[in-house]
Design brief:
Helix content: over 70%
Radius of gyration: 20 Å
Largest sheet: none
Oligomer: single chain
Strand content: under 5%
Shape: globular
Order of helices and strands: HHHHHHHH
Number of helices: 8
Length: 224
C-alpha cells in the first residue's frame, strides 16, 4: 500500500473518531443546559458558585455556553474537505463567522471565567494561556488564507481547532478521574486543565511532522 493511501486511511479514521467523540461530549454538555436556565446551584458545574455567579462572570458564563457549541460544530464543518472543495464560498463565509465568534465571544468569556476556575489560579492560568494560544492560531490562519498560503492556513486552523476541542478533552479526563475516584479532585482538575490542550497540541505537531516525512520520503526500490 502506498504512503498516500495509508495517509488517507489513517487521517479518515482519526477524523471520524474525533467527530464521534466531539459530538458525543457535546450532546452531554447540552444535556446539562436545563440546569442553567435558571441557574441551579446544586448542579455539578454551578455547585458552590452562588457568590461568584454575578456581574461579569454571569454574563461571560451565558455568552460562553451559547457560543462554544456553535464554534465546535462550525469547526467540524470547516474541516470537511468535501465542503471546502464543493462549497468554497460557504466555507469562506462560515470561516469568517467562526473566527469572529471565537475571538469576540468564546475566548474573551473564557478569560473572564478563568478567574473563578475550580482549582484556583493554576487552572485559571491554563485557561488564559489556552485562550491566547487559540486566538494566535486562528489569526495566523486567517493571515495565511488572505495571503493564499492555503496549506499553512489549513495547519494553523487545525491547531486552533485542536485547542478549541480542549473543552471536549477536559470533560473526558475529568469524567475518567471521577470514575477512578482520585484523592484530590482539585489537583486532578488542575492537571486535566493543562493536559487537555498541551498534550493534544503536542500530539498534533508530532503527527503532522511524521506525515510530512512520510510524504517526502523517497520510494524504496523493490528487491528482485
Amino acid at each position: 500500500m502506498s504512503t498516500a493511501a495509508r495517509y488517507r486511511i489513517l487521517t479518515t479514521a482519526l477524523r471520524w473518531l474525533a467527530v464521534v467523540l466531539i459530538l458525543r461530549v457535546l450532546a452531554t454538555i447540552l444535556a446539562n443546559y436545563p440546569d442553567y436556565f435558571p441557574p441551579d446551584f446544586e448542579s455539578l458545574f454551578l455547585l458552590g458558585r452562588e457568590a461568584t455567579f454575578t456581574g461579569a462572570y454571569r454574563v461571560a458564563f451565558y455568552v460562553h455556553i451559547a457560543s462554544s457549541p456553535l464554534v465546535l460544530v462550525s469547526g467540524l464543518v470547516l474541516l470537511s474537505e468535501t465542503v471546502r472543495s464543493r462549497c468554497g464560498s460557504f466555507h469562506r463565509y462560515l470561516g469568517r463567522a467562526h473566527v469572529m465568534a471565537l475571538l469576540v465571544l468564546v475566548l474573551p468569556s473564557s478569560i473572564v471565567m478563568a478567574r473563578y476556575a475550580f482549582g484556583g489560579w493554576p487552572a485559571g492560568a491554563s485557561f488564559v494561556l489556552l485562550a491566547f494560544a487559540t486566538a494566535a492560531c486562528a489569526v495566523a490562519g486567517v493571515g495565511c488564507a488572505r495571503g493564499r498560503r492555503y496549506d499553512r492556513h489549513r495547519r494553523w486552523m487545525l491547531r486552533s481547532y485542536v485547542l478549541i476541542c480542549s473543552a471536549v478533552v477536559l470533560r473526558l479526563i475529568s469524567g475518567a478521574a471521577g470514575l477512578i475516584g482520585v484523592a484530590s479532585p482539585e489537583g486532578a482538575y488542575i492537571a486535566a486543565a493543562w493536559s487537555s490542550w498541551v498534550i493534544p497540541l503536542l500530539g498534533y505537531e508530532v503527527f503532522e511532522r511524521w506525515m510530512v516525512r512520510q510524504r517526502t520520503r523517497p520510494p524504496v526500490a523493490s528487491l528482485r
